Request: fold
Amino acid sequence: PELRVPVGGRYGPEGELETLEDEETATVAAQLARLDVESVAVCLLHADRFPQHELKLGAAIKDVLGSGVHVSLSHEVVGTFREYERAATTEVDAALSPLLSNYLTKLNSACEELGLVEPLIMQSSGGLASLEQAAGHAALTVLSGPAGGAAAASLVSKAGGFPNLLCFDMGGTSCDVCLLEGGSVRETGSKRIAGHPLALPMVDIDTVGAGGGSIAWRDSGGALRVGPRSAGADPGPACYGRGGSDATVTDANLILGRLDVGNDFAGGIRLDRVAAEAAVARLARELSLDLAECARGIIDVANAEMVRAMRVMTVERGLDPEDFSLLAFGGAGPLHAVAIAEELSITQILVPVDGGVFSALGLAAAERRRDDVRTVMLSEDQIDREALAGLAGDADRVSWDIRYQGQSFELTVRCDEPEPDRIRQLFEEAHENQYGYRDETAAIELVTVRRRHLGQAPEVSLGPPDFEAVSGPGPIDLGQATLYLSEGWQARPADGGMLRISRREAM
Reply:
C-alpha cells in the first residue's frame, strides 16, 4: 500500500470529467522516482474505454524515470471493464515483466551466438507471441508451460481422431488438468492464479499440488496428506539418492514396484530403493501403518487430489467423465493413469510415447496468435449485423461475452460470423447448459468482444509409434516417463504418437 500513488484527473463511463494536468503527471512521476521502483503499474478508472490519461501518465513516468523502468498500462494489458480484475492483472504484469524481460534478453543473446532465430514465447492462451511482446507483458505467459501441453493435446486430438480428451499433466511438483471438447481446448477469459485474478485469455486449467516429488506427511489430526510441498529436483525424492529424506509420491511408486530400480533416469539418476523405504518407513511409523500400506496410502491420496481436479473440470460443469478419453502425460502422469481412469469410470486412456516432453511438442507445433479483447456494452437493439461485423473486423476467430440484461456476469460463446440470431441462440444454449434454464423473452447485452488473429502453424505428422501390444500388470519404460498397467489392462499403438490403453476384454 505504501507504494500506491493517487492521481488527479478523472474519466467517467461516458467521458472525461476532470482534466489530467501536466503538473499532476510531473508530480506523480517525481513521487515514483523517490520510491526508487523498477516497475510501475498504471490503472485508472474507465481506462478500458478512455485510455488517454493512462497514456499521458505513462509517457511522463518513462520520461522522468528513464527506459530502465518498466511501465504496465492497464488498457494495454487487459482492455476490459471491472476495475479490480484489471488492476490486479496489471500489477501482476508489472511485477513479472522485468524478470521475464531480463531472462528473455539473455536467452535471445545466447540464440544469436548459436546462429538461431529469435525465440517465440508460449502464451497462457496456447498461442505463440513474439519475444518483444512477451517481455513487455509477462502476464500473458503465466500458464505458458501447461498451455504447451494443451496445445500438444489439440494436435494429437486431430491427428488421432480423439475429439474429447480429459488431459492431465503430472510432473514433479503439480498436476495440471484441462479439457478438449470436439477437438478444441476449453478456454477462459479470466482465472485466479496464486490468489490473484487475471483477466486475460488463457487455457482453462485446474492445478493441484500432486506431483512425483510431492511430499507425504501426517497432519495434526493424524491423517495422511500429500503436497503441496515438494522435494523439488534437488535433492528430489529420497530414492534419487541426493540427500532427500522426505517420503514422496515417487518413493511410494518405487516401493510398490511401479518403477524399475535398474533404469537410468535423466541426469544419470539410478533409483535407490533402500533410501525410499527408509523415508516411507519413517512416515509409516507416525501413522501406525506398515510400509506397503503407507506407500499405497500415499498413491491413493495423490490420486484423490487429481481426481478432484478432474471432477471440477467435468462433473461440476455438467459433463460426464465417461464421455472422454483420459490423456496422461508428463513424467509421472502415465504412472497414475489407470488408477484415475478406474476411479472416473473412463474406459480409454491415451499416453504419448514421448509424454515426458509432450508440452515441448505443443510449443514446437503451436501457431502465432494475438488476442484483442474489448468491452463494448451494447444493448440488444444495438446488436445488428453491421455493428457485429465492425466489431469482428478481420479476426480469424471471434467470441462474444453475452448476458441477460440485469445479470452481473457473462457467458462467452464463439461465433465467427456476425449473425445476431445465431449468437443469441448459442448464448441461450450455453446458459441452459450452465444454469439449467433459458429465457427467450429476456433482452440480452453484448458486453465484450474477443478477437483472435492466427498465424501459420508448423506441419507436424504423428503416426502410430513403434510399439508392440503389452498387457499388465507391470511398468513400461517409455524413455522420458514410465507407464504402469494394472491387471486386466492392455496398451497398443494408435495414431497421433499414442498408446491406447483399455481393458483387455474391451479390445
